[in-house]
Design goal:
The protein is built from 17 helices and eleven strands. With about 425 residues, it is of the alpha/beta class. Strand 2, helix 1 and strand 3 form a beta-alpha-beta unit. It comes from Arthrobacter terrae.
Length: about 425
Amino acid sequence: MKRAPLLRSVGITAAAVTLAVGTLAGCGTGSDSAAGNGPSTLRVTLANHVWTDQIKAAIPEFEKANNVKIELTQLGEDQLSDQYNVKLNAGTDEIDVMMYRPLQEGKLFAKNGYLADLSDKVKSDADWNWSDFQDGPVSSTTYEDKVVGVPTITEREVLYYRKDLLAQAGIEVPKTMDELKAAATKIKDANPGMAGFVARTGKSTAVTQFSSFLYSFGGDFIDKSGKSAVNSDAAKKAYAFYGGLIKDQGPANVSTDMSWPEAMAIFTQGNAAFYTEADSLYKNATDPAKSKVSDTVGFAPLPAGPAGSKPYNVPSWALGINAASKNQDNAWKFIQWATSKDMTLKIQQAGVPGPRNSVWNDPAGISTYPKDLASAIAVSAKNGVGHDRPLVISVAKAREIVGEPIVTAITGGNTSEAADSANTAFQKFLDSDK
């Protein structure tokens, strides 16, 4: 089978670091040990992330309990993509456990046969409990009805807002899109120089946050038959609403190349009343060292559109097993351990949102989060959609196409025509994205 080329990630990443971590053999026999009485070597490749830092610190306990020596490779996103590009394309068996991004390269990896089928494994341990994982993230680590990964890190879109500005205006927290628009308009009109609303505006970077508006208006990027749906009535209304909200209630002379750092800065410098963004970035708004409005920030579920409140609820990272690995039993033991209830709770308490319902329902699991944020997350997790961009192979190209009508709406162009044009281009893209 001809394999599609891997995609290079785009972003600022830390320098590559390769670590070998090992301890003396514990009791018992490694199931894949060549000698039969020594520790098996398990090669684990993880991304630079706070989640990884927590796992790395606990690796010695896993090694001792399972008579396994971990060889850990820890890399930045770009370096991780480079290694996968070289090694997986070559059919390597030198990677056992691999940390990957389900929404960025998950379809490509699964289609190329890089990821082992975990369907039977996830159902084999009632105590580990696969049913405890949230539906949205699970849908994104499933390919053609086969489970190919286990979510580790999740995020959802929520509404950030200024409690003080709402109180001054006598406004309740918006529960619908129409209420959000009305509240943003009232606050902007009453406060010269203040934006009523801010969000990402870049053609590609805004796609993920726009997606929640799209779903809440009843649309999606691709319909159930696999065809482009970015010019459906629901999609056109969503494009017009999101772009129009930024155009009319957003910052003056707003740029059309803002990603989250720029949009967040406008909010945290006290220059916007409402902001929709990933919950995982909340500390940027609540940390006094980063935010001038840290003591007045509130959080709420994404306001409901015609189809309800349907924010994305996605896994930003997951663990999979290299299909070519000769140490899959130990690889699965590692994944079970790293994604167990106890480990998920520990990591979530360190500020990394996890995928388990039981941890979110545990007071200890939300003890380090603002109460209103935890409540918003609970709603978003229940109603959330498992993708925040088109689920395709060439993700970057797809985002450029479906993001074009966002910019058109922000700049006051004909959104309907832009959506029609994007739909034609996106369908052509889908026909070739195989």
